[in-house]
Design goal:
- The protein contains 13 helices and 23 strands.
- By secondary structure, it is α/β, with parallel strands linked by helices.
- β13 and β14 form a beta hairpin.
- The longest helix is centred in the middle third of the chain and has 25 residues.
- About 40% of the residues are buried.
- The protein binds flavin-adenine dinucleotide.
- Flavin-adenine dinucleotide binds next to α1, β4 and α11.
Length: about 500
């Protein structure tokens, strides 16, 4: 235990880090576009699916429709557009199995560090495998490590929480055996996790209260889209699935653009949706009146209005107030309310983390992502042969993950054709970039991560990604040389 096992070294063309939905997608693209390549996936846990395996709280489900969240190469075929966590986990796992990607995964391989060797034109990765240190090398690395810390949630400063006699639970670490039947529960937070959890908990708990400092936009949507069923009955399945994917893609894009261009009309639309569903006992102001415009933070979707139904049944309640302090048996608010409770759930968000906590260096010199710009939303300035898979925050994450994977494959093909061993994004001298926020939301977890994330620039090719329609085109046909410095050389193949 603890020794460095050099005999375990292995050399690859591409190493993908992370076997979540983005890593499996990247693997599919690599093995399809570059069939001669030797690749592997290094995964720190013992499961496929990342987020969809880690999170086990009751009611866990997607917020996005699975027609766009699912793989373009294995369309989601269920009539239900929003899926529960287990169905997504199974879908990702079965997709990996169907294409033999599961055979390429090395589980319990946590990548601790990656150092690029300019002399060898390779990445050398230090990996922890159940306490043993191993080294792997590769010409190119794809970091599909997600965007948050798997071990530590975002710390929320809740005064007096240590004095609480009941259980305090963060949804990232849900106890499998938690018995909450007939218990009084307070869920702190108003994001997607709270909106998902509450209807599910309300089925068995005595009462669930959502305690929010500020409200979020929530919209009820049907789980089954009738137009999808119509298309499936009229068109062959390959065509129907394409049409359904594009329908969801375009409609959600139009709705996003509409909210950005006409925020007041967007607010009215959502408010009208809420007005029909929120019981009169819970006033819309302030409980359903966010202080920001729609889509400045991620919009929450509740399938078939399940969240509102739990309010209508009186099993759940909403309180908009600030916590004064937590006592042994409840929460005292600044507004003078006391919420008597047995369990507190802190749905207060995720702690953002880039590159799965890895140390990244070039010839031994550490690179700090926060000081660097991102090239086309994919590669980090001054870092050779490495792609960061970051999806969209205002559409299905995986659409962004896929354009990244496609762009990387096209870049590698081009490099092979030109006998180039590496590509490194460089900001040319005299190009004075102005920093632009990379993720276009002002959610708390993104605000708190400022100063640790890389920057977007104000001039192409350093601008943050635009939207799927533009980025899809860029991945397939966009320029692959602007502000990239190439090294000609041997060692372009691992074998
Ligand atoms: C509860 C919840 C619900 C969500 N719902 C939606 C939704 O509806 N729509 C949407 O678009 N997005 C949603 N998201 C965002 C979601 O995380 C992404 O959409 C998507 O699942 C991310 O996939 P990923 O593969 O990029 O990352 P992850 O799912 O986070 O997978 C990363 C993988 O990398 C591994 N890893 C990390 N670091 C290392 C390392 N150093 N070495 C080796 N392996 C490592 C992890 O173990 C993990 O398996 C949700 C997130 C959460 C938490």
């Amino acid at each position: 235990m603890g020794s460095i096992d050099m005999s375990a070294s292995a050399d690859f063309d591409v190493l993908i880090i992370g076997a979540g939905i983005s890593g499996i997608n990247a693997a599919y693209r690599v093995q399809t576009e570059l069939p001669a390549y030797k690749y592997a996936i290094l995964e720190s846990r013992n499961a496929i699916g990342g987020t969809w395996d880690l999170f086990r709280y009751p009611g866990i489900r997607s917020d996005s429709d699975l027609y766009t969240f699912g793989f373009a190469w294995r369309p989601w075929s269920s009539p239900k557009s929003i899926a529960d966590g287990e169905s997504i986990r199974t879908y990702v796992k079965e997709s990996a199995e169907q294409y033999g990607i599961d055979q390429k995964i090395k589980f319990h391989h946590k990548v601790l560090a990656g150092d690029w060797s300019s002399a060898d034109q390779r990445w050398n990765l230090t990996v922890d495998n159940n306490g043993d240190k191993k080294t792997f090398s590769a010409r190119f690395m794809i970091l599909s490590t997600g965007y948050y810390d798997y071990n530590e949630p975002l710390k929320a400063d809740i005064p007096g929480i240590d004095k609480f006699h009941g259980q305090v639970i963060h949804p990232q670490f849900w106890p499998e055996d938690l018995d909450y039947s007939e218990k009084k529960i307070v869920v702190i937070g108003s994001g997607a996790t709270a909106i998902t959890l509450i209807p599910s908990l309300a089925d068995n708990a005595a009462k669930v209260t959502m305690l929010q400092r500020s409200p979020t936009y929530i919209m009820a949507l049907p789980t089954v889209d009738p137009s999808g069923n119509w298309m499936r009955s009229w068109f062959p399945s390959w065509l129907a699935s394409k049409l359904i994917r594009w329908q969801f893609l375009v409609l959600s894009f139009i709705f996003f653009k509409f909210c950005k261009a006409f925020p007041n009309a967007g607010k009215k639309l959502i408010r009208a949706n809420n007005k029909k569903l929120v019981p009169p006992s819970i006033p819309l102001d302030p409980n359903f009146k966010p202080s920001y415009n729609p889509w400045e933070q991620r919009l929450c979707v509740c399938p078939d209005g399940d969240f509102f139904k739990s309010l209508q049944k009186g099993k759940a309640d909403v309180v908009t107030d600030t916590i004064k302090n937590v006592t042994g048996n409840g929460i005292q608010t600044e507004g003078g309310k006391f919420l008597d409770t047995d369990i507190i759930i802190t749905a207060t968000g995720l702690k953002m983390q880039l590159a799965g906590g890895m140390n990244v260096s070039v010839d031994g010199k550490v690179i700090l992502p926060a000081n660097k710009y991102i090239w086309k939303g994919v590669m980090l300035q001054d870092l050779p042969n490495a792609a960061f898979v970051v999806g969209y925050t205002n559409a299905s994450w995986t659409l962004g993950a896929d354009v990244t994977a496609k762009l990387v494959c096209r870049l590698l093909k081009r490099m092979d054709a030109n006998k180039q061993s590496s590509a490194v994004p460089r900001v040319p001298e005299g190009k004075n970039l102005k920093p632009v926020q990379l993720l276009n939301l002002n959610s708390t977890y993104i605000e708190k991560a400022k100063g640790t994330l890389p920057m977007g620039g104000d001039i192409a090719p350093w601008k943050p990604r635009a939207n799927y329609l533009v980025d899809h085109w860029t991945a397939d046909y966009g320029n692959l040389t602007a502000d990239l410095e190439f090294t000609k050389g041997l060692k372009s193949k691992a074998y």
